Amino acid sequence: MASAKKVYDAAQLLDGVVDQPAIQQAVTQILAAVGEDPQREGLLSTPDRVARAYSELLAGYRTDPVQLINDALFEVAYDDMVIVRDIEFFSLCEHHMLPFIGRAHVAYIPNGKVIGLSKIPRIVDMFSRRLQVQERLTRQVADFLCDAINPLGAGVVVEALHMCSMMRGVKKHDARMTTSTMVGSFRSNPSTRQEFMDNLARGAERLNF
Fold first, then answer.
1. Is 45 exposed, middle or buried (0-12, 13-18, 19+ CB in 10 A)?
2. From the CB of residue 172, how many other CB atoms can be counted at a distance below 10 Å?
């Protein structure tokens, strides 16, 4: 897991716990700044609730990838494509700290090792539960998977709705963003890439958020 630790360090994960009192103080200041009364009944517990919510929403900063994988790597004589699709996720846009939600589709071709099925959604969660941009999230999932099991190739496609473009700015409610990262044979071999995309297209009617 030295290679996975490399990705862990490069991602600048944080040690320790969230400074909830600091978040509570900041939320109280925001409430006052927008003209609300932080002392009215409905808002008295809001700073505490927001602080606890951010601890959960940004838990990916404190996820140890070594513990996440937990030795769930298995030697298998299998070299055909493995796909885990429709992995639901939520994240916070780092530009406005508003949510973006969607689904990730992850595929790889084993090179003597496979990773436990439940670990791929956990990898997506680890990187999505941070302040993010979708492009970086997509790349981080692919890089981490490649460092963990050194597959012959890997592909990640992420589709998401962004609240920052739905609720403010251009206010386009149905605009979705799709990002992809192709590594190894998924990039160099068009037929491998097409097999992955064809598998996604066959289930496209189910991609309703």
1. exposed
2. 11
Three-state SS for 74? strand
Considering the entire predicted model, what is its pTM? 0.87
Q: Which residues contact 71 (CB under 8 A, 6 or more apart)?
A: none
Q: Whole-angstrom Cα distance, residue 157 to residue 196?
A: 10
Would you please indicate which residues are annotated as catalytic (active-site) residues?
Answer: 93-96, 134, 162, 164
> Going from the N-terminus, what domains does the chain have, and what CATH number goes with each?
20-57 (1.10.286.10), 65-206 (3.30.1130.10)
Tens-digit pLDDT profile for residues 29-63: 999 999 999 999 999 999 999 999 999 999 999 99
pLDDT, tens digit, 9 for 90 and up, residues 66-91: 889 988 999 999 999 999 999 999 99
Encoded amino acid at 206, one letter: R
Backbone angles phi, psi at 157, to 5 degrees: -125, 130
At 99 the pLDDT is 95
Are 83 and 107 in contact by the 8 Å Cβ rule? The answer is: yes
Question: Residue 175 in contact with residue 209, Cβ under 8 Å?
Answer: no
| Strand-strand pairing, 131-132 and 82-93 | parallel
| Residues 6+ away with beta carbon under 8 Å from 82 | 107, 108, 109, 110, 114
pLDDT digits (tens, 9 = 90+) for 150-178: 999 999 999 999 988 888 777 777 778 99
Q: 82: closest CA among 161, 135, 152?
A: 152
Strand partners, 162: 100
